Amino acid sequence: MLDNAQTKGRPRALATEGDWWRFSLYEIRDGCIRPADGAKLEWYSPWPGFELSRTQTVGQTPAATQPNYQSLMKLVHQLEYLPGETRYPDCLSQKSQGLILDWCQRNGLLGVLLSRWEAISLAPRHDHAARCVQRRYFRGFGQVIQVQEITIASEDRNATVLIHGLDDLTPAEEAPSKTWARFFPSVGFSERDTFAYPQPYTVEFCQLYGERLIDFCNAARLLVGAILHLGRKPPKITGDPKLARHQALDTINLLRRPVASALDFAENGSVKPSRVAPSLLASFADMFAQDLIYGRPTLQCTCCGTPFVSSAYQARYCSKTCRLREQKQRLRAQMKRAKAFRAQGQSLRQIAASVGQPLARVKRWLRSAKG
Ligand SMILES: [Zn+2]
User: Fold this and answer.
1) Distance from the CA of 324 to the center of ligand 1, in angstroms?
2) Which of 80, 116, 188, 296 is the most buried (most CB within 10 A)?
3) Measured in angstroms, how far is the CA atom of residue 311 from the centroid of ligand 1?
4) Is the backbone peptide bond immediately before 297 cis, with ω within 30 degrees of 0?
5) 206-232: pLDDT as tens digits
6) What burial class does residue 235 get, using C-beta atoms within 10 Å of its C-beta: 0-12 exposed, 13-18 middle, 19+ buried?
7) pTM, rounded to two decimals
8) 118 CA to middle of ligand 1, Å?
9) What distance in Å separates the CA atoms of residue 155 and residue 194, rounded to the nearest whole number?
């Protein structure tokens, strides 16, 4: 029963729509990543760095020119799961939990809920004129939220959320206590269905929003797993590799589905296109898709295994450190072979030719071996 229905869009007060928020400090409490008390909220754009990452020149190590989503691939690669533990946070080593907090301080949370919800109707409440009012939020595009307030006859209407999985679009209508409330760790257990949740992307919302480690890690692994299956060297699996690639493509398409191309005004008043996304997770999936189309596939460092992005097909190392480390290892192996050849009675010239090093260097190696 609707009377006095009104809708309004999100006021353009915060920042451009593609921006994302982060706090200066996060903590893990009861298995949930949340802003620490007194942490400062800041909005930033993950996109300018992305454009810049394309300007890599030949010979430059990729480390300096990686898109933001590469840092998530690196994080997932570094996570250490402890044997015997299946529950978060205990299944993750202390070091891994520290890495996740560092990552969140640089990038914010992934916005898992903001990629999953479609609409929420809050529990009705009485306004100052003693009317019974129900507030509803609907997802528009990017970070645009439609807010509707309706006056209803009686209070006995429950709060409901329309929500789906990250890689499954089947919607479910459910009470906030089922999924929505997981992302609001400070809301009391008995209040989960009646709480006046703030409008998404407002300061109050950002301050209350948290992500359980299990939700953060599962979402990160879902995206990174799909990226790796579409990379230059897909991980070995027991099933059909072709099917795995198809599934990976489906996952990327589902994760970037809510990203839209919108029009915005430039500073000089002209109209420019901009990418708008409801979550960092969706932005990352979209950046990856753009890189793939652009011819910048995901590779894996031959030294440490970290995934990285490069348009140079011969690129082998994620960083200068890894390149130098492997160079050192190669030299050490050559030195060992040179000594073995010497023990077999080969001449210096023969040894230099077979290990592919200048005679002077081989001489130096063998001299240091004697001393
Ligand atoms: Zn490396």
Assistant:
1) 10
2) 116
3) 17
4) no
5) 999 999 999 999 999 999 999 999 988
6) exposed
7) 0.84
8) 40
9) 12
